Structure formats: C-alpha cells, structure tokens
Amino acid sequence: MTKALIVGGGVAGPVAAMALQRAGIDSTVYERYPRAATDIGAFLTFAVNGMDALRAIDANTVVTGLGFPTPTLVFRSGTGKVLGAIPLGGSLADGTVTHTIKRAELYGALQDEATRRGVAVEYGRTFVSAEPLPGGRVRALFADGSMADGDLLIGADGIRSAVRQVIDPGAPKPRSLPVLNVGGYVPSGQVSVPVEPGTFEMMFGKRCFFAYTLNGNGEIWWFANPPRRQQPTAEEVDAITDAQWRSELRDLLSVDNSPATAIIEATPGEIRAWPTLDLPEVPVWHRDSMIVIGDAAHATSPASGQGASMAIEDAVILAKCLRDQPDTATACSVYETLRRTRVQRIVAAGAKSSNSKAVGPVGRVIRDAMLPMFLRKMAKGGDKSAAVMFDHHIDWDAAISVR
Ligand SMILES: Cc1cc2nc3c(=O)[nH]c(=O)nc-3n(C[C@H](O)[C@H](O)[C@H](O)COP(=O)(O)OP(=O)(O)OC[C@H]3O[C@@H](n4cnc5c(N)ncnc54)[C@H](O)[C@@H]3O)c2cc1C
Q1: In whole angstroms, what is the distance from residue 58 CA to residue 394 CA?
Q2: Which atom of ligand 1 sits closest to the CA of residue 142?
Q3: At 97, is the secondary structure helix, strand, or coil?
Q4: What is the CATH number of the domain that holds 353?
Q5: Which of 96, 114, 330, 376 could form a disulfide with 14 if both were Cys (CB 3.0 to 4.6 A apart)?
Q6: Would you say residue 359 lies in a domain?
Q7: What is the CA(308)–ligand 1 centre distance, in A?
Q8: What pLDDT was estimated at residue 223?
C-alpha cells in the first residue's frame, strides 16, 4: 500500500502519520477542529511506555520539554493518613520518567512535528462516511461534500469514532463510569501545599477522590472525581455552572483532612468537567481497508493514565505491521493479534480504578483497609497489571512476526 487516510489529528493520528512515513507510506491527516483547539484546560499523565513508543520513531524529544515530571504517586485516606506510595512506571534507560502534560500542548506538539516532517494535516475536515472501492481501495467522505481515496482508512477519531460506526454499525457505544472528572489550576503562591516535587498526591476522600501536584513554577494542577451513579451527558456536564461546581466540591471535600477546599477556593476562572467514559470491548476493529486505533478502538478511563500512551503504541505498531506484512488485510489482523489483549487489560484496570473511587461507606472501609497491602505489592513490582502497563518496549527495527 502507498497511501493512508487518517481521520483524527489528536494523539494517535499524527503519530500514525509519522510512523507510516518511516515505513515508506504516504498519508494525510483529516482533523475536524482547528489546530490543537480541543480540550483546553485538561491535562494528562503521559506514561513512560508512551514516551518509549514515541522514541521508536524519534519523536520523544517533541514532548520532553512539555509539562513536568511526576514519577511518583502518594495515596492518602481522607484522614490524611498515607496509604502507600508507588512509582509511576520507573524510568527509561536515559532516565526519562512519566510526565504530566496539558492535553492541548501534547496535541499541538504532535501535530506540529508531523507537519515539520512533511505530513499533510488538513484542519476543519469532518469525516462522515466511507465506501470500499475496487482493488481493495477505500473512499472517505467529508461533511463539506469533499472526498479522498486511499489504500487504507485509519480511524484515529477518538471515543465517539465515526469510522468505528462505518466499520461496524452495531459497534458498542462508550460506557459511563460512576465518577466525573473536574479539574483546574492554581497560580503559584496562592496556597501552600505539602507536596514533594515530582509527586502526585492522591486522596481517597470520604466522599470524593481528589488529586493535586505542583509544576516546576509552583502552580498547582488538580482534579477531583465526584461520584455520579447516573452519568450525565456531556451537554449536561457542560451546563453545570462554575458556582455549582465550587459549591458541590466544597461540600464533598470539606469533611477530609486535606488542602482540597483551599485549592478549589483559590482556583481562578472557570472549573471544567468531563464525563468518565470507556469502551471495554469493540469486537470489530477492521474490515475492507478500514481500521480503528487509539480511543476509537479501546478508550480507557482517565484513571488508568494510559489512554494517550496506548494510542501512540497503537499507531507505531500498526505502521510496523503495514511495513512488514505482505498485504493490508494481513497487517490489520496481525496488528489486532498484537494489541487486543494488552489494551483490553488496561481498559479493565482503568474501570476498576474508577469504580473504586465511587464506593459507598462500607466499600470505602474495605478499600482503605486493602489499599496499603495492594500499594506495597505494586511498589515492589509484584503487581503484574502495573508492570504490563509500563514495561512495554517498541523496537522500530525489529520485524513484526506472529508465531
Ligand atoms: C478528563 C480526561 C483525562 C484524561 N487523562 C488521561 C491521562 O492522565 N493519561 C492518558 O494517557 N490519557 C488520559 N486521557 C485519555 C486521552 O486523552 C486519550 O486516551 C487520548 O487522547 C486518545 O487519543 P486518540 O488520538 O485516540 O483520540 P483523541 O485524542 O480523542 O483524538 C481524536 C481526534 O479525532 C478528531 N475527530 C473526531 N471525530 C472526527 C471526525 N468525524 N472527522 C475528523 N476528525 C475527527 C477529534 O477532534 C480529535 O482531535 C484523559 C481523557 C480525559 C477526557
């Protein structure tokens, strides 16, 4: 194959384009929004395995200047008692550790690097449908009436993927998990917080999970996960006012021994929120020269801290499969064989983590009693799921083979 059409210029899309270029395959990225305009205000944990995957295509330097290192998580109960501390994936051979990065900055850096490498990224292009063409080719149709033809259509269009629906009209819809995500920033010097550099403080409060960290300039970055048995829609979440958030979070967090309420009071500007969604199993990932990768195929709860890293791994491994396998259909099948077990395991771990933040009073007592033992096991490297998440290495030069 020589030409790929990539729908989505978030994380997986630009990385797929750069990796395909290395594999000698031309591509165009079609993104519905203007450059890096989405989700201003959100930040994410960018794990070492994502860094490793970027390194496979020499794109890791693009993100190393972004955000700040957060290699350690410290967990506390609502009383302030330390339940345990765990490394967030250790470090790569050159000392690179997990970072916390603003999502829009990550998007912008990846898009810019793809453009710098000569990839065509077209903004304001909304994919609506696709149809197979003779000879195994595929045609993408856009909302403005335009179309584009290629040898493979890659849906890197996120959790509400339109490409996924074209591949399988019966594909599952995103699932709601019982917490919301609310977050913000506090400028330096407003609140004094007892946190070591490089540490993310995570509190299983009596009524609400709350986390915060300090960036290199003394700014506090925080998020909370207020429980919601009935998940509102994205529109309903957007309709909750800033004053309502402040009032709800104050009520939920005032019962705990933590700086949470002071942090929220000191947060200037609007407090933003997102529903918590995932996609545990998408049965069909590819058909007729179309395939989904990243969140379009397997979105995970933010609690796993792995969505962006898995999207990058997907993009690089798909490019390797297309480089090494004899034809596109075989490459897509081999790709699925290599990826499905890993990503579904991480999605399951993310859901478990989100669910544990929404337990009732009895569940909370059990959770807080079990956590120190579980965290000790993780810290010693004895927890297999944590090791599976982070200890993933991609060697670009190694040929893909499936035994
Ligand atoms: C609140 C929150 C916190 C998170 N925290 C973390 C974290 O700590 N760590 C982590 O690793 N991950 C985190 N994530 C998840 C992470 O953001 C995603 O897993 C990651 O962005 C997935 O990348 P992607 O490229 O697959 O999809 P996306 O980043 O969603 O990109 C999809 C792109 O496709 C575009 N698009 C969609 N439809 C169309 C269309 N029809 N036509 C053209 N373009 C289209 C979109 O505009 C978007 O740019 C979090 C997510 C949320 C919501």
Answers
A1: 12
A2: 42
A3: strand
A4: 3.50.50.60
A5: 114
A6: yes
A7: 7
A8: 96
